[in-house]
User: Fold this.
Amino acid sequence: MKSLISTLLLLLMPLVAAADNGLRCAKSVFSQPDVRFMQKIKSIHADAIIGVKGLPSGLQWNARRNLVEGKVKAPGTYTYTVASSINGQVSEEQIKLIVSDKLAMPLPFMGWLSWNSVEGDVSEAIVKSVADMFKANGLFEAGWNTIMMDDLWQARKRADDGKPLPDPKRFPNSLRPVADYVHGKGMKFGLYTDAADKTCAGAFGSYGYERIDAEQYAQWNVDIVKCDYCNAPPEQDTAIVRYRRLGDAFKAVARPITLYICEWGDRKPWLWGAESGGSCWRVSADVRDRWTCEPGGTGVVESIKAMKNIAQYVGVNRFNDADMLCTGLHGKGKSSNDLCFGTPGMTQDEYATQFALWCMWSSPMALSFDPRANTITKEDLKILTNRHLIALNQDRMGQQADFISDADSLVVFAKDLENGDVALSVTNMSSKPLEATFHFTQIPALDADKRYQCRDLWTGERLSAVKRSFTTKVRPHATRVFRLSK
Ligand code: GLA
Assistant:
């Protein structure tokens, strides 16, 4: 009888373990030593009581907000347990925390990707001129420092020994001198591949060549690789395996190479991207140079939808990527103009909104202009070099802003910052000017009874102190951003 019961129990156990416990949180998290860390824990059950066990010294549980916070001084690998109780039924999740000053990408990259406007013309000359432009126009000084080649840098086929080769005409000296040039400017160099035989544009991909490619990328001195998912099987399980093969291959080479996953959010990479060795992952289909992209593409409106409910998966070295910025394109890109009805391009307020939201979300940011056309204006540079907004994107706690509300055509986000400040944004989704009020009781990161210093981040201006609520005007499709300090 006893053995029958234990057999039954054993049979039942996998079922219990596999059942969805309702917890929605990252399972591998990262922090830099002695830098404030935060992990938000969510449950799909509103009545779940959440708690933690076994926190390493320096971290505390914030029961009011359901988050882990604090600082861990010593580098190392730590584990703790998140427990969720619903009607007395307890389920648990193990969290692995890696504290290290050698993480692949502690802060989201800020840089340039060739695809939107350069496509198959990407060349040694173009990469070098983007690096030169970043230096000359103040972008580098403001933090823009990662120059990446997208699809079609490749030759028609690999070398006979299987090694990847760049297009010989556009890269007559292969890639090492290109990387060296970019590094010589104090910047990072990246390229693109695909987790299948062929890339989206039909060049050779890395499937089956992961080790060879990683070795060659390391010899070329590549820092970051965007890995696409065209021509690969659709299942999540397969994607996990394929990206892990790339991630493992990158880890095995002498040079640190960051894995940038690009499967467009279709397989929820925020659930497994970090475990596959990725430091960021795209969350949507390609972003187009549009406020909204009908019928099936991604404009700013659709980016907000893609990002708004996945903030708790983001932290240091694990970022949701909202795709290339169109700021600076003015409808003059190439692939950034397809997929939607109507004329491409956005207003200056819409471009500024895109940049502000990417900063609020700690999304990686890649400009995508063609240096030959030089479409970036003085007004664009003013947006893109705003140090107050960049400080949000590059905040060392790496938190994505939480979605607060979207009532009355006003989208509000709130972002926790390393020094305890909170950034608030409000985007006017309507075509009329609106007044927006931030109500502190609706924003968990704020203390409803405390008085805060308030800075307008677009102008840098200090405003009068605020308490409980404050009201601001927002132009159509514009975004106001404020930083509140206790
Ligand atoms: C996909 C990606 C784009 C770009 C192109 C290149 O569409 O999502 O970002 O890399 O492939 O072919």
